[in-house]
Each structure stands twice: as C-alpha cells, then as structure tokens.
Amino acid sequence: MRFAHVSLPGSQEPRLAVVQDDTALIVEELFPGAPRFLEELIAGGDELLERVRQTAADAGSRHPLGEVRYASALLRPPVILAIGLNYAAHSSELGLKTDSTPTVFVLWPNSLAGHDSTTVWPRSLSESVDYEAELGVIIGRPAKDVSAEDALSHVWGYTVVNDITARDIQYSEAQWSRCKSFDGFTPTGPFIVTADEVPDPQNLHIWTVLDGHTLQDASTAQMVRPVSALIAHLSKSVTLLPGTLISTGSPGGAGYSRDPQVFLRDRSTVTVGIDGIGALTTHCRILD
Q1: Are 121 and 110 a contacting pair, CB within 8 Å?
Q2: Using omega within 30 degrees of 0 as the cis cutoff, is the peptide bond preceding 260 cis?
Q3: What are 81-108's pLDDT values in tens digits?
Q4: pLDDT tens digit string along 147-178?
Q5: Are 116 and 70 in contact (CB under 8 A)?
Q6: Domain ranges of the chain
Q7: H helix count then E strand count, the chain
C-alpha cells in the first residue's frame, strides 16, 4: 500500500491518507478509532494495517492529489538516523574515506519537511547548500541485535529523503548533525510504500534533478552496506523502535564535487526520486 500525510483544502492539520489512483483517502474516516498518523498505524501492527487495507478497498470519499498539501512522510519519528559515506562514488567525490564501519549521525526533527514545500535559509549562514537523494527506511517492529538475514522483516516501509547539507559547515565541524538539520533540510515523502511492495531495496533507481538538470543517477545496488546490514549494525547497540527513520546514504553526483560546483540557489527547485516509491520536490529560498 501507499500512504502519505496530507492536508485537505481549508485545513492545516495533516492526516494520514491511503493513496490510490491519484487520490487520497483519509484513514481516520475509515472506521472508529482509525489511525490519524503513520506512527499510530505502525504501532497497530499487521492487524491494523490489514483492517485499513480491507476498509479502504470499498471506501468512496476520495480527494484528488492535486488538491492536497503534503507533510513529512513521518511526523514524529522516535529518531532519525542517517548514514554517511554509504556509496563509494559519493565518499570519493567528497574526499572522505569510507570507514570499516558505517558513519552514523542523527538528524534533528525540526528539519523534517514535506513534498512541494519551501526550505528557507539565510545567505549569511551558508551559500554552499547541497542536495542528496537517499532511500529512507522505516522500522515497523522493534529491532535489537538482529541478524542481517532477519533485518528486512523489521522494515515497515520505504520513503524518499533529501538529505540537504550545508557543505561549508560540514567541513568546519567534527560532527554532521547541524549542517544537515537546518529547518526544512530533511524533506521526506511524498509517499510511504509498505515493505511488501519493495521486494529488493538494493534494486532501486535513485536520482536527482536540479532546475531541470539530472545530477544524480544511480542504483541502490551501489550501496557499500545494504539496508539489511545497516539495520543489523545499528541494532547491536540500540533498540530500533517502530517509526524510526533511517536515511541510508547518497550516491555520487553531489554538487560540491562538480567543476564548477553546483549548489542550491535562491528559487531553485530540486526533485529527488526513487522509482517505485516517489519523487520528492523542494523549493529553495535564500534570504539576504
């Protein structure tokens, strides 16, 4: 199934919706006690998901996707874990070494944003802001010390993430959380696709288009460590709680490494996408 958090015309409150045939069906309206947000649906387990699936099949009150506004794929994840240097081409172009273990950092929740939103930052803070298309993995069942062979059974679904990064700050500080956690620097969505619709997360076309130019064009098969290995590694030290979002790294083609360099400009439009999951657009404004 395919879900999204959307706001209907005349409302600012995002609600979970089933997405079918270019329409949105508000899950909360399907039956008494139905979940309002994705986190509630995940917490309800397979039984609740199946009830939503069966009820949505016969529901009739649908809204055209062209009339809704999107919020972040997840509104209140328990944590956002990001993986750096997980594609060899990206590590090389940044002049950074891929370590023997994954590079892990945390993104702050204020950075979450939805599809077709506008991300704003002051020019005085950074003029070297870059894009990074990434596969987002959403945990469905608690994962503690799981094996790589069992890891994907703990995945609830997948989404698209743009790990927007202020490169000048990234290279001036020892940690990466702040340079990637400005307000609106972690757009996600527009859709969340349940795991059963993605039989192999290592066989997905991932790409970025900035102002009409394709700048990233790769496959998740090029990950240094596949999704299963990342989950297994993370779960050795912490319990991955339901609703946890893991952003799994970006392929080569970042603007920082280009000659001349290509950064997000005032009024730029950047779309990152993964075939079979969705295309996530962000509009950029830089304040003088």
Answers
A1: no
A2: yes
A3: 999 989 887 667 777 666 678 899 999 9
A4: 999 999 999 999 999 999 999 999 999 899 99
A5: yes
A6: 2-70, 80-287
A7: 6, 20
Give the DSSP letter of residue 239.
-
Residue 260: Cβ-neighbour burial (10 angstroms; 0-12, 13-18, 19+): exposed
CA distances from 171 to 167, 247, 270 (A): 6, 20, 23
Domain 80-287 has CATH 3.90.850.10: yes
Distance CA 228, CA 202 (A): 10
CB 215 within 8 A of CB 253: yes
- Beta pairing partners, 6: 15, 70
DSSP string, 138-202: EE-S-BSS--HHHHGGGEEEEEEEE--EEHHHHTTSS-STGGG-STT-EEB-S-EEEGGG-S-TT
CA–centroid distance for 127 within its chain: 24
Structure tokens at 63: 């809204």
> Which H/E stretch holds residue 47?
helix 45-58
Residue 188 sits at the vertex; the CA angle it makes with 49 and 264, to the nearest 5 degrees, is: 170
Q: Whose CA is closest to 23, among 48, 6, 36?
A: 6
What's the whole-model pTM score?
Answer: 0.95
Q: What angle do CA 137, 56, 75 make, to 5 degrees?
A: 35
287 beta partners: 122
Q: Which amino acid is at 110?
A: N
